[in-house]
Amino acid sequence: MRAPSGSPVRATILALVAVSLGGLMVSCRDGGSSAPSAAGRPNVLVIMADDQTFESMRKMPKTLDLIGKQGTTFSNYEISFPNCCPSRATYLTGQYAHNNGVRDNVLPLGGWTKLKAAETLPVWLQRAGYRTAHIGKYLNTWGQTDENDKVGQGDISPPPGYDHWFGLIDPTTYNYFGYSVSVNGTRYQYGTKPEDYQTDVLAQEADNTIRRFHDEHPDQPWFVSLTPLAPHTGGVEAGGPAFWEDPVPAPRHAGVFKDEPISRGPAWNEADVSDKPKEIRDLKPIDANFDATEINATRKEYETLQALDEAVEKLVTTLKDTGQLDNTLIIYTSDNGLYHGEHRIPFGKVRLYEEGTHVPYMMRGPGVPAGKEVRPFAGNVDLAPTIVAAAGATAGLTMDGIDLRQVAADPSKYGDRAVLLENWITFTPNRTWGLRGGQWSYLVHSSGEKELYDMSADPYQERNVAADPAYASVLATLDQRLTALKSCAGSRCG
């Protein structure tokens, strides 16, 4: 659930990132900045959760303290296409889905084979002299012969751009225990003992990799991408994923939030959806049985995040102990949010309301102001441009995003920025485009239906004012802007 300005949840999160001094930022769209000396370039550590909501960030005090409080938090960070594979493709390319071509989790519109892997972030960083590693989940269907492969019998050789590969093999990616990993092309199977817990194994691998990269080549910068399953739904044992089962916390965290009260915002089980599109109007109200299921699942999500919170602390401690902390750009975020009954949406993401698109984003490191919150809109389309600029690398394609270090340095220059939202919902005939900018959330459906929300007055998107004549001029302006964004590329994406 997106926490509105002034809400207790939002205040709890943002109180830990109070405004401090700014810093000098240098960047250029498409990574065209000149490369500094190898010794002066920062290491880059990206930690990306899976399906983590903005609201749940308050359950990660170590991360808030070690990254948020010591860096900059973007309070309006949006996922342009809130679904696993499209979101991660945008992370790796700096392009919206309409440019990178990955529009679903599976074929024909998506899956990892739709990504043009030869021109992605790790490739560009390798060319710039970085050592690179991926640890965790990649793109959906990676390692499978097709989406019906229940074991993962496909090609598990590393994609281009990685010096070290520790990639979870689909579909076992979605098992917190009993999963398979490709270690530079060799399959390893993990069991069901407490020490096999996925988040812990991935965190230890990231720790080992960071130490090894530093020990072997102390003057060579590195890039490590850590992408655990947490807090996504998952199974418990080997034999394939159980997408509809609760997240599985580490045994040491099981039950720590079993009595946690779960607050419900006004959007939950929305009473009046008469102003929503037909696909929402057709949803049944959430019943008591499903509500109890969602409450339990939410508590498990909180518990699952505890191991990830500990992993962040572990890695920051390692960076400090090895003398690398001050020269490492650390980014924490999620690939998308998740619905828990908001607007009667019982589960999943994809749809373009705030619970699915608005996620945590914070970063710390050289040139990043400490203890600062910035409000201009940003998104996952900005991840690769930020890293490319920080590394002094050159992108092999035209990126659509911008360097967020510039935004952190001078937010006033980006106050009118809008980010594009888009989806292709394969299980309905409806496609949706939208934008988030200023006080507005604007959605246009292929059915012809439109939604307009004044987020300053209606942060839970309860009142669609698209048909209200009083908003006609606003609608016309946003319509024009959205039309431009739907086909934008590079600098035209704003």
Describe this entry's structure for a reader.
- This protein has helices at 8-14, 61-68, 84-93, 97-100, 121-127, 198-216, 278-281, 288-321, 354-357, 383-391, 404-409, 472-486; strands spanning 43-49, 72-74, 77-78, 131-136, 164-168, 180-183, 186-189, 222-227, 328-334, 361-364, 372-374, 378-379, 418-424, 431-437, 440-445, 450-454.
- Helix 2 crosses helix 8 (288-321) and helix 6 (198-216) packs parallel to helix 8 (288-321).
- It is globular, with a radius of gyration of 21 Å.
- A 10-stranded mixed sheet has the order 7-6-5-4-8-1-9-10-2-11, with helices on both faces. Strands 13-14-15-16 form a 4-stranded antiparallel sheet, covered by helices on one side. Strands 3-12 form a two-stranded parallel sheet.
- The longest helix is centred in the middle third of the chain and has 34 residues, at 288-321.
- The protein has 494 residues and is an alpha/beta fold.
- The protein has one domain (8-416): 3-Layer(aba) Sandwich (Alkaline Phosphatase, subunit A), CATH 3.40.720.
- The two termini are 27 Å apart.
Give a quick set of tags describing it.
single chain; 494 residues; alpha/beta; Alkaline Phosphatase, subunit A; 10-stranded mixed beta sheet; 4-stranded antiparallel beta sheet; 12 helices; globular; disordered N terminus
